[in-house]
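Project standup — Tuesday

K.O.: blocked on the structure for the chain from last sprint. Re-posting the sequence here as requested.
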Amino acid sequence: MPSSGSTRNRPPERPIPLFVRVVGDDHPKACTGRRLLHRGLARAAGEPRPGAGPVVLDPYAAEPLSPADRGRVVRTGLLVIDCSWNRLSGRGRFPDGAARAAGVHRRLPILVAANPQHFGRVAELNTVEALAAALSVLGRDGEAGRLLEGFAGGANFLAINRERLVRYAATRDGEQIRAAERALFAAGPD
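H.V.: unblocked you, prediction finished:
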């Protein structure tokens, strides 16, 4: 049946560029960043130029990633620094200044890990979970789901965090993300 012309076909959205910088202190078989690179799902990050780099997912950034960041992320991509949580704990920064020259830093909204190493821990996501969470917050659920395929706990991650991710994706900006976090975690995480 011919189209009446009243419905427009939107061109498919361009996938968000994903970058990984592996610092190298994780166990190679447990390193989801290396596996993303090996599978061609992300590109290795070189040294970004100041102000021109992708949005850096940084657990110590003050501002949370929100749908307001979508335009910039589509243009410049997302960068994760793949390193051990043991190196991050208590330091308040990445090892060896790994992300110092990159562009804007954003933390992920509060989520619960589903990976075997940190299952049930609040905010201790592995690299693939972090990228999938960012994609979901930015309204790219399909990309998030495809990214998690074949990773232990991948499908569980989206299921465990479904309510949180839906709430975060429905916000406009960082202030609304913080309000959603307060509401979702007021009684403690599930």
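K.O.: great, moving the ticket to review. Residues 18-87+97-185 form one domain. The mean pLDDT is 84.
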